[in-house]
Amino acid sequence: MSFKDIIKKSVLESFTNSNITTTAVCVTLAITTILALYIFAVYFLSTKKTFYNKTFNISLVPIAVITASIILAMQSNLAISLGMVGALSIVRFRTAIKDPKDLVFLFWSISTGIICGAGIYEIAIIASLVVTIGLFALELTPYGTAASLLVVNCDSLDKEAAIVAAVKENSRHAYVKSRNASIAGVDFVIECKAKNASAMLQKIQQMEGIKGVSLLDHDGEIHF
């Protein structure tokens, strides 16, 4: 037997004679499920005040379990591992991730399945705790607040300068994002950070030619 045959035989034996038992599979999938449910809870708690995607959150649990199952299968047989690599290389996912935070949870779920499938449960548990602490700690970190959108409906475009001046008296900045003129009147959309929203709205409403004023909060880009 040549050296090449010895290497080939040892590699094949290492895959075909795996020590993975039914008990080991059940334990791995059980731990993966517990950690996946933990990720489910963290996602719910960290996003319930903004935009909570229930369908995405539910999918995090089976993603982790399926990933762990794939890793277990790849460890047990060389043919399956090569088939998995080939199959996954041609799969394309076209679902757009709307929130960057969702991408963090998606990678967290996949990495948990990979680590648990490899049998390194301690790393999966410690990593989950570190990620959780990091997420909530960064949420409490003071940073710039999102600006509000002030929608003003008036009778003519000549009122723009007076409206912007009134906004600047009660806001850190005022930026006109859009002007929409029609027969019914003119709509101004102004980005601002109101110090006293009630006073600003009251002053603008008392101006001549103003038909309506609305102040909306939005989750867009933050301006410092």
Which SSEs are present, and which pair or pack?
Layout: H1 3-16, H2 22-47, H3 54-76, H4 78-89, H5 100-117, H6 121-140, E1 148-154, H7 160-169, E2 171-182, E3 185-194, H8 197-205, E4 210-217
Antiparallel strand pairs: 1-3, 1-4, 2-3
Helix pairs in contact: 2-3, 2-5, 2-6, 3-4, 3-5, 5-6
Task: Name a few traits of the molecule.
alpha+beta, 8 helices, elongated
Let me know the average pLDDT: 79
Number of strands: 4
Terminal CA distance: 72 Å
Describe the sheet with the most strands: 4 strands, antiparallel
Low-confidence stretches: none
Radius of gyration (CA) equals: 28 Å
Strand order of the largest sheet: 2-3-1-4
Shape: elongated
What's the short story on this structure?
The chain is of the alpha+beta class. It has helices at residues 3-16, 22-47, 54-76, 78-89, 100-117, 121-140, 160-169, 197-205, and strands spanning 148-154, 171-182, 185-194, 210-217. It contains eight helices and four strands.
Structural description of this entry:
The chain is an alpha+beta fold and 224 residues long. It folds into two domains: 3-140, no CATH class; 148-217, ACT domain (Alpha-Beta Plaits). It contains eight helices and four strands, in the order H-H-H-H-H-H-E-H-E-E-H-E. It has helices at 3-16, 22-47, 54-76, 78-89, 100-117, 121-140, 160-169, 197-205; strands at residues 148-154, 171-182, 185-194, 210-217. The chain has a four-stranded antiparallel beta sheet with strand order 2-3-1-4, with helices on one face. The longest helix has 26 residues, at 22-47. The termini are far apart. 18% of the residues are buried. The mean pLDDT is 79.
